Amino acid sequence: SGAAAISGFNKLVNVDKVPFSFTSFTAPTLSIIPVANEKQVLLINGGAVGPKLVKASPYLFNNRMLAVMHGAGLIQRAKERGFTKMAALFWNDDAGIGTHKYVEPRWKAMGGTVVAAEAHPLGATDYKPYLSKIMAADPDFLALWQWSKDWGIAVKQAREMGFTKPIMGIEFTPDAAKIAGATADGYECITDYFDPQSPDPWTKSFVTNYKSKFGTEPEFYAANYYEGVYILAELIKKAKSRGGDYWNGKALREALVEIKSFPSVYGGQVVFNPEDGTCKKKTALFVVKGAERIFQKYIEIK
User: Are 79 and 166 in contact (CB under 8 A)?
Assistant: First the structure.
């Protein structure tokens, strides 16, 4: 919760005097920002994807790509497929609404129209009222700004209602794919992509060491926080090389703004945008077949 996050963070800052902290989950991250700003503590988020994390603080940098970036990738793909009329179904919260608000003007600037935009309460399991409005609007495709198992339920209900147009989203989870079953075949999704099978030398050594220690392959959360430690090491080196007092959030932040681009354990680079705290790193287009996501290609989000 926010209160627990604030009390834990206050101890780190006031008792342990940390100039830097990793963070995750949107709500706790947003709740500690006032303290981070006041005490000048650099934050790196490797887990949360909420749109409110864009430009949330000069001290917050996200080394996980945020949902809005995946949304931007989705409309690039929709344009590539020749679509112009979009319908959207999304969570009625900061994440869903925020993603739609970010994507909508960009889609319109690309010459697209939004023929239906339906927000549903979190935890809803019956999307039929929203889907019937969407079907009546006759879109070229349906975009889902939904996470966890919800996209699977939405896809299944849309197909059962006779919706035949393409459905695209920014989430894939195996449990949602199981719920949707064969109805999810052809669902496309755009997500950041940590591939444990990648031939990249750093990825390989990380995966090998992680497996020998934990007996399982790392997923992107593990990869992001592991990568974050190396980013921090680069910041310390850079800040230290400038001389003077370097072990503080302001000096570490200045180092990040100067370097901007760091090696990523995904392969390639993770590139930060100091203007809004977002990053770009390896992102991919997948299509679902037989409840599995199948890699199609890497995409460059503009």
Answer: no
